Amino acid sequence: MNDLPNNRSSVSEFILLGLSNSQEIQIFFFAIFLLVYVAIIVGNLLIVISVIVDNHLHSPMYFFLANLSFFDLCLSSAATPKVIADFLRKRKTISLWGCVAQMFFMHFFGGGEMSLLIAMAMDRYVSICKPLHYKTIMNHRVLIVFLLLSWAIGFTHTTSQMVFTAGLPFCGPNVVDSIFCDLLLVIKLACTDTYILELLVIANSGLLSLVCFILLLMSYVIMLVAIWQHPSSASSKAVSTLSAHITVVTLFFGPTIFIYAFPFNSYSVDKFLSVFYSIITPSLIQLFIL
Fold first, then answer.
1. Is residue 6 assigned to a domain?
2. 7 in a structural domain
3. SS3 category, 11
4. In Å, how far from its chain's centre is CA 12?
5. Is the previous residue joined to 173 through a cis bond, with omega within 30 degrees of 0?
6. Residue 93: enclosing H or E segment and its boundaries?
7. Burial (CB count within 10 angstroms: exposed 0-12, middle 13-18, buried 19+), residue 47
8. Residue 277: CB atoms within 10 Å
9. Are 44 and 70 in contact (CB under 8 A)?
10. What is the pLDDT of residue 117?
11. pLDDT tens digits for 92-101?
């Protein structure tokens, strides 16, 4: 396959296998995914609009919450609309550059949300451990810097992977065993040696997610210990907020860690986790942050 220098990309589209070949099951999935996606759109838009229009919600915590909802909205919209439409199609295809765009935006908003969760943890740490200096430390400029860093990290995260992926030669086969373009699965279809690139993706997405997840859990443990050592009337509310944040962090990082940090020989589990991460997680996050 490496002897194709003059035909670097004869593949113009990829075929997505989806979740099932049964028409009845696909109609069922269409209804479920459509309902979930509508819930994601409506729920996240309500959160963003409420934070913008309600002056009582103009605080650092709700600022991050509104931006988290925006990232959730964008992350689920990167692939879900096409996934829903494909349930009504017998032959599910996506163009080469459409596939690249899908992967770019999924990793862009995924990396941005990962960074924003770290910023939210830092906000809660300052609020609990340094309450007297909270307003001074978490000022408007700091919030904007955190937000810009989230966007920058998301862009760097996806660009560092897609700059190599977009130039890969695809000569066939062109079948992706998923409902959308999964980066690792697409890379494996290239007609060249992709071992180093696969390691880069695993290190970039998997190990980064694992390290951030561990650091976040450690920060929440420190905050819980601080609450336990200095109980107050607001302790129960703080514990409730931290519990919700820990749940959100677990929902967000869990599937990513299993997909990229611990690759499976069989991708059936990965397919389920990919669906959970991109479609189910944003709707569940709404339940815990409200």
1. no
2. no
3. coil
4. 27
5. yes
6. strand 93-95
7. buried
8. 22
9. yes
10. 87
11. 999 999 999 9
The secondary structure element, H or E, covering residue 239 is helix 235-256
Considering Cα of 28, then 178, then 285, then 62, what sign does the dihedral take? negative
Place of tokens 């765009």: 101
Report the side by side order of strands in the sheet with 93-95.
93-95, 13-16, 175-176
Asked whether residue 2 is domain-assigned, the answer is no
* 35 vs 50: CA distance, rounded Å: 22
Distance CA 271, CA 280 (A): 13
How far apart, in Å, are the Cα atoms of 122 and each of 55, 129, 270?
23, 10, 31
Question: Over 60: is that where the pLDDT of 67 sits?
Answer: yes
Span 161-185, pLDDT tens digits:
898 888 889 987 899 888 889 888 8
DSSP label at 176? E
Q: What is the pLDDT, as a whole number, of residue 286?
A: 58
Q: How many CB atoms lie within 10 A of CB 93?
A: 15
Phi, psi of 16 (to 5 degrees): -100, 125
Burial class (CB in 10 A: 0-12, 13-18, 19+), 6: exposed
Domain that includes residue 235, residue range: 13-289
The answer to whether residue 117 sits within a structural domain is yes
Give the residue among 262, 216, 220, 237 at the shortest CA–CA distance from 113: 216
Residue 153: CATH number of its domain: 1.20.1070.10
- Give the model's pLDDT for residue 223: 85
Tokens of 118: 């770290």
Sign of CA dihedral 16, 21, 24, 25: negative
Give helix then strand counts, H and E, for the chain.
12, 3
Q: How many domains does the chain have?
A: 1
Tokens of 16: 């997505």
